[in-house]
Every structure is written in structure tokens, then in C-alpha cells.
Amino acid sequence: MEEKTYDDDVVNEPNMRDLVVKRMEERGVKLEEIAEITYNLQVKYIPELSFASCLEHVERVVTKREVQNAILTGLELDQMAERGDMSEPLKTMLLEDYGLYGIDEVLALAIVNVYGSIGFTNFGYVDKMKPGIIKKIDDIGKQSGRCHTFLDDIIGAIAAAAASSVAHRYA
Ligand code: MG
Known about the structure:
This protein is mainly alpha-helical. It is 69% helix and 0% strand. Magnesium ion binds next to helix 10.
């Protein structure tokens, strides 16, 4: 028999989708706002695309285990930095969203990775353009002492992954 090294009931939480959606809402982000980015990324290629369909693809992305794990990890690190519950130099790097830190993007790639190479292209684009809620989250992070170092990349990655999922669907 295989020996358990962790509590399966805790890790295999059936409502992980609900949990990560709630955590993101607590950080000021709704799935609808992520779907808006996905819609804007894809509507130029698929004119008949609907917002509802984009939201469905975002939903699909957040049911993936690897995506949920990346969300939980990133949001936790942002909040630990905000609380000051973190040692230096990491605390300052996260609080000041230090440009050469780079691990926020690396974590987000775990999300994009689920949908292959179009995902990477979309993520790069979103990371540069900072559309919609990403810009909003970035600005709040700069002005209010909130830490959104991981959150902005997680949002961008979910939007990019959903855009890739849409592209695959219509290909
Ligand atoms: Mg970031």
C-alpha cells in the first residue's frame, strides 16, 4: 500500500475552483474582468466570439490543478509581503515590485504552460500592454501599499491561457 505523506482530503478539496475564485475576488479581481482581456485578445481573429464564451474558457482554466496551485501560491506570497510576514531582501523586492525579480512571471508561466505555445505569445503581449484590470491592479499596488507583484502576472496568465483555449477551439 502507498503511504500518504499529506492529507488527501485537504489537498483534493472539491471546491478548489470556488476557493481560488474567492481568493482572487478578495484581492479585487473578478473572472469577468479576466474574460474581458481574453475577449479583446481574440475578437480580432474571431469576430463572432462572444463574451460568454470567453468567460467559459476562463472558467475552464481555473479548474486546472496546476493553475489553482499557482494562484494560491502567488496570492499567498503577495499577502505575506503586505503583512510584513517575510524576511529581507525578498520582502522589499515584492513590496516594491522590483523589476529584476522575475519569479512572478516564472510562476505565471506554469499557468500559460497548460495551453502550449500560443499561450506564451499572448502572455508576453498582455504583460507588455497591461490591459484593463491588470493596469488597475498595478496602479493600486503602486499607490496603496498593497502588494500585487504576483497577482498581475497571474491575471495576465489566466487571460492568455483562456485566449489560447479559445484559439484552439476555433482553429
Ligand atoms: Mg508582476
